Here is the input.
Amino acid sequence: MKALRSIALSLIIGIICCGLVLPAAGLSTDGIPQTQEEIHSYAKQILRGEILNYCTAMYAGGNNPHLTADQLADAVNYYPEYPRRITDTGNTTITIVKPLNRIVAYNFHAMGTLDAVDSVVGVANSAMENAIVVPALKTKTNIGGGGPYEPDFETILACRPDALLTYTQLGPDPEFFEKRMPAGVPVIRLDFIRPWTLVPEMNKLGYLLNRTDRSLEYQKWHDDWMNEIDKRLATVPKEKRVRAFVDVWSTSFTDRSNERRTVSDAEHYSFYCTDASGINVASELKSPQGTVDIEWLAQQKPDVILGVSYTGSYDSDDKGELKTQYDELISHPALQEVPAIKNKRVYVLSFRYTNGLTYPAARARVAKWFYPEQFADIDPSAIHQNYVTKFLGSSFDVTKHGVFSYPD
Here is the structure.
């Protein structure tokens, strides 16, 4: 008890000496600290609150969650750069008291963009396909798993991680990691798959990993292209907007000879269409698993059919499955009078292209398919290549290798 009191007293003295009683300055981008001033000011606020919570719990019978004495000691030691705090996409408050140097990245996607690969000690097996553009992945421990498959937890523990980065829903069940990780090792849930959360999530992770320069650089690249696309789409008259059917290819829910799977505007994948100023012909669809009869599709007479494939990646040049989806649609007897088929306006995207940090390039691709005149001078592949070169530092040529869309 004397030792705890001594620690508490030392921390309180530290607060006074460091001026932690000062209020925090305003925060920039989505309330996420970015500048040194913001980071230091927010660290004051966090540390002050954590010390008060600790003292209340230890000496006044309080039961508020708080950092341990060891964590507080680390926070004081690394102050004013730490502590750092975010609310992740799973709505969990994550507090970091010192630099993260050994991260198991079950979700690896942002680590290369943030130039933080050196901090990664383990990745999911599914991430290894990106080694062709991020060669350093080959030196990381393969923890297994990927998608819905569970990793090898003994291998994760052998990595001696100080944090684990994963998704909110993809992968093992929501508490798979939280139930098993050692005390004090945070599970950070950030997705990097939804267009509307890419920048906030990047800024949160950039702040946690002390890579705010890189996250802000990504934000500028992202916003510049998204604004340019917005500007051009705004010139399309409402009466000229294309009517599109989003074909979500999956053998799990459809008999593809007489039905297709699609999405309403209430569902995640509809943004492929609506974000490019298309009109989703299934916008109000209410159907189990999103299945529709092929006759229904023919009756809608869409101008464009936009396919979404669950295949494709950097490590393969085989566009076979994307082409198969394309061929099924373009040759279906019941669809031959549909404008999209007659005018050969059928296109297929890989979800790995659209559901990630390369989204501005994918959005430009769809916008150009929908409105070729407005985007005649825009090269979506060049936008994609710029991302690969600028943020991944790779010479990988996206025009010669990889599977992202069909036809190009």
